[in-house]
Amino acid sequence: MCSSMKFKVVHELSSPYKSLHDNYVSNRRDSSRLTSLLLILGCLTILGGLLAIALVEKVRNQEKIDEAVNPNHTSTHEPVQNADQSCLGKSRIVLVESIPYWMDYGSNATFGVPLYEAWKDLISTATKQIDVSSFYWSLTGQDINVNSSTDKPGRDILEQFKALTKRNVSVRVVASIPTVASNSTDLRTLKEHGVHVRRVNFGRLTRGILHTKFWIVDRRHIYIGSANMDWRALTQVKELGVVIYNCTSLATDLHKIFQSYWVMGQQNATIPDPWPSSYDTSINAEKPLHVNLSGVPSRVYISASPPVFCPDSRTKDLEAILSAIGQAEQFIHVAVMEYFPASKFFFHHRYWPVIENALKQSAFDRNVVVRLLVSCGRDSDPSVLPFLKSLDALESSSDNISIEVRLHIVPVANQTDIPYSRVNHNKYMVTDKVAYIGTSNWSADYFNTTAGVGLVVSQDAVHSSSPGDTLVGQLKAVFDRDWGSKFAVPLEKLGHNPDCSFSKR
Ligand SMILES: *[C@@H]1O[C@H](CO)[C@@H](O)[C@H](O)[C@H]1NC(C)=O
Ligand SMILES: *[C@@H]1O[C@H](CO)[C@@H](O)[C@H](O)[C@H]1NC(C)=O
Ligand SMILES: *[C@@H]1O[C@H](CO)[C@@H](O)[C@H](O)[C@H]1NC(C)=O
Ligand SMILES: *[C@@H]1O[C@H](CO)[C@@H](O)[C@H](O)[C@H]1NC(C)=O
Ligand SMILES: *[C@@H]1O[C@H](CO)[C@@H](O)[C@H](O)[C@H]1NC(C)=O
Ligand SMILES: *[C@@H]1O[C@H](CO)[C@@H](O)[C@H](O)[C@H]1NC(C)=O
Ligand SMILES: *[C@@H]1O[C@H](CO)[C@@H](O)[C@H](O)[C@H]1NC(C)=O
Ligand SMILES: *[C@@H]1O[C@H](CO)[C@@H](O)[C@H](O)[C@H]1NC(C)=O
Ligand SMILES: *[C@@H]1O[C@H](CO)[C@@H](O)[C@H](O)[C@H]1NC(C)=O
Ligand SMILES: *[C@@H]1O[C@H](CO)[C@@H](O)[C@H](O)[C@H]1NC(C)=O
Ligand SMILES: *[C@@H]1O[C@H](CO)[C@@H](O)[C@H](O)[C@H]1NC(C)=O
Ligand SMILES: *[C@@H]1O[C@H](CO)[C@@H](O)[C@H](O)[C@H]1NC(C)=O
């Protein structure tokens, strides 16, 4: 399968960063030309709309012809443009969630926008270009020999992606080598439908995986969240993410990260050191983007891992998490699929107390209330349980130390034949200051070898007159909903539960 996915390298460049230049130029040119065309268009509309439209079509056709006859034809623009510190139009931020079927929260629980709706909306909004990064694609049940009608939304998303190129929306996809979706034909099918696909060999590059999950639509809207392009993410796995509409600067910034994967998806690519300046960012923890999101004044930036994929100016994902923990004054609420204060894969059994220490220090030194909601499913690794118990044991009301751990258990119900599902896949943190929405498990390997991103949003939710209107307020409500639900089990109350592997011990 891997060997059938070779990509043509169509031009040679003398730059020291040869591997960074890529043969995929149509989008860039489209968008930069389009920008100037829009300007022209604006003027010409006054003189006569028809003339303008004819011109656009003519230039577009000329581009297509150029490309067909001259595959070496390449843009003189940098592969990535610098973000200006603004967003076009009115930016909106929307919390999106996927709640597994047959998980009953009772009648008055509130939820984010369903992930399936959010994805459909982004697809229908697209007019020019969609770039997607996902660990893997597996949008039909047959990929894993499962016959379940709950794969219908997944199939539908796959069909909609196949139809995008017919709408002249150019689609690029990056996925990981190694992969877990060895039987999936999604990527091949997408290629047959004109989607540009690259698989990035993180196994070779960093001995990790590409675990990032995000979409960039028309260089204007973005999605970041826990969900892979997997049918189970829509109906069988609990997911959380955000969509930001109408923020060109963040989309341009995220595009730099996409572009770093894209160029590393070329055969034999090697990681540049340092990354060329075009990958630098002007938006980071020190200089976040100031923008009104859904009308709320916010400071936003995107963090990334692994460090070897980040220019100096990019805040590393681990730094973003530590800084959010360090700034909290009242509470730190964490919901992660996996929390593990050690290296699990690469340096097996190496203790890694970096996040652990930051959490304990917040609880000890600043009396911040720490709550950790960790997933437990049928496939979870029980070796983390003693670590969780040791954190939980620090709770002491007489010393004003408040650390509590609960296990989030999604009932398997009658869905027993669907592997690697019925689990809380969320990866976020909310404090009295920030919302952090990421794609990584909280264990050493994810921040060292594995590609992931985090979105950090600071808003003054605590003092807001209507905290429900802020992302930070909404995320806190989601955490509180789950923490107080029957699905969050205090460690000492974990009896026999076949849906959680920890309870078998
Ligand atoms: C593209 O570039 C390669 C290498 O420089 C060259 O061999 C080839 O002839 C060029 N193709 C076209 C169509 O110009
Ligand atoms: C983006 O902003 C424009 C106006 O600035 C608005 O018309 C459009 O509906 C917005 N798009 C989305 C998806 O919110
Ligand atoms: C559900 O709504 C009812 C009526 O508004 C309220 O009394 C009750 O406390 C709510 N339950 C929860 C769990 O929020
Ligand atoms: C892939 O298909 C083979 C043959 O049907 C099967 O043995 C294997 O378990 C499948 N792998 C996955 C990940 O479903
Ligand atoms: C899948 O299940 C449906 C009903 O649950 C059944 O009608 C169909 O024949 C099954 N398909 C396969 C390939 O087993
Ligand atoms: C796509 O582009 C082609 C060539 O520019 C044009 O003929 C066609 O009408 C476009 N299709 C759509 C759906 O916009
Ligand atoms: C990549 O490396 C392999 C093995 O060294 C070599 O055979 C192949 O030609 C290289 N491909 C490119 C595009 O450089
Ligand atoms: C955000 O909106 C307020 C008004 O609600 C306005 O005064 C402020 O300039 C806006 N900030 C940005 C960065 O657009
Ligand atoms: C994240 O953690 C879960 C739980 O241990 C694990 O099953 C999963 O493989 C991890 N994700 C990846 C991509 O390794
Ligand atoms: C705990 O907090 C309360 C209220 O802030 C304070 O009065 C008390 O002295 C604190 N106790 C310790 C041991 O820090
Ligand atoms: C599982 O249970 C739900 C709810 O009771 C039901 O709608 C569904 O058909 C069942 N699915 C299977 C595979 O039994
Ligand atoms: C991260 O990876 C480097 C090698 O790439 C290794 O030297 C270092 O010990 C690793 N750190 C952790 C925390 O695993």
Automatic annotation (TrEMBL):
GO molecular function: catalytic activity
TM region(s), chain numbering: 37-56
Residue ranges constituting the PLD phosphodiesterase domain according to the UniProt record: 206-233, 420-446
UniProt keywords, alphabetically: Membrane, Transmembrane, Transmembrane helix
A Pfam family recorded for this sequence: PLDc
Highest taxon of the lineage: Eukaryota
Family matches, as SMART domains: PLDc
SUPFAM superfamilies, per the entry: Phospholipase D/nuclease (SSF56024)
Signal peptide feature range: none
PROSITE patterns tied to this protein: PLD
Keyword match Transmembrane helix: yes
Transmembrane helix in keyword set: yes
InterPro entries tied to this protein: Diverse_PLD-related, PLDc_3, PLipase_D/transphosphatidylase
Family: Belongs to the phospholipase D family.
Protein name stated in the entry: PLD phosphodiesterase domain-containing protein
Organism: Pygocentrus nattereri (Red-bellied piranha)
